């Protein structure tokens, strides 16, 4: 079992890896961001999503164009540290089919890293309802974001637990348990509404494997 943390200014001495946020970053900027930590630590890259970077809004809809840049970033970062994988955020339904997303992920994978597809909660985006998450878990390796999954289940605990029990956990490589930067998705952990001990017991009983846990 390994624990990771988000791209905060200081790396915890408890962290086994860093989720390096490369949303909207060029090759040079991504390398600079990693070097700014001054520590040799394994990383999982966190790809583009809707976010303001350097005064410009980025989004996941440029996935095909960004794939070549991701590959360059991965190859260069491999010279500095161990790249455990990259998490891809599915773009809007009207822009990409799920098959197209998987095809782009296979292209990125060609440089020798695992490519995880993360579940979403905005209905305009792919992989944002429980059935889609379950179906994709049978097709491709994934990052499962627990708070986002709960939101996608309409905050319905029964639907949420049914979904957890139906996911093919052998294809899940990383779990996002909380987001300390985003109170909208972190509040469910902080207020105790989600029983994380119960959740992890369900997951471990289904998966019988170790995960990368990210906070």
Automatic annotation (TrEMBL):
Protein name, UniProt field: Putative endonuclease IV
Keywords: Endonuclease, Hydrolase, Nuclease, Plasmid
Keyword Nuclease listed: yes
A molecular function GO annotation: endonuclease activity
Superkingdom classification of source: Bacteria
């Amino acid at each position: 079992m390994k624990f990771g943390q988000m791209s905060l200014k200081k790396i915890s001495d408890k962290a086994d890896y860093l989720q390096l946020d490369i949303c909207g970053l060029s090759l040079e900027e991504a390398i600079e961001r990693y070097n700014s930590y001054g520590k040799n630590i394994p990383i999982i890259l966190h790809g583009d999503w809707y976010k303001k970077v350097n005064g410009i809004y980025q989004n996941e809809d440029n996935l095909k164009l960004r794939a070549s840049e991701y590959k360059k970033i991965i190859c260069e970062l491999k010279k500095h540290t161990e790249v455990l994988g990259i998490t891809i955020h599915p773009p809007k339904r009207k822009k990409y089919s799920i098959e197209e997303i998987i095809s782009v992920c296979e292209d990125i994978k060609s440089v020798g890293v695992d490519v995880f597809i993360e579940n979403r909660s905005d209905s305009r985006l792919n992989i944002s309802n429980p059935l889609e998450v379950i179906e994709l878990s049978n097709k491709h390796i994934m990052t499962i974001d627990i708070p986002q999954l709960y939101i996608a289940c309409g905050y319905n605990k029964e639907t949420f637990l049914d979904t957890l029990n139906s996911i093919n956990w052998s294809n899940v490589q990383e779990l996002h348990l909380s987001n300390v930067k985003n109170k909208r998705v972190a509040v469910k952990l902080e207020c105790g509404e989600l029983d994380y001990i119960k959740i992890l017991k369900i997951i471990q009983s289904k998966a019988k494997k170790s995960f990368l846990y990210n906070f």
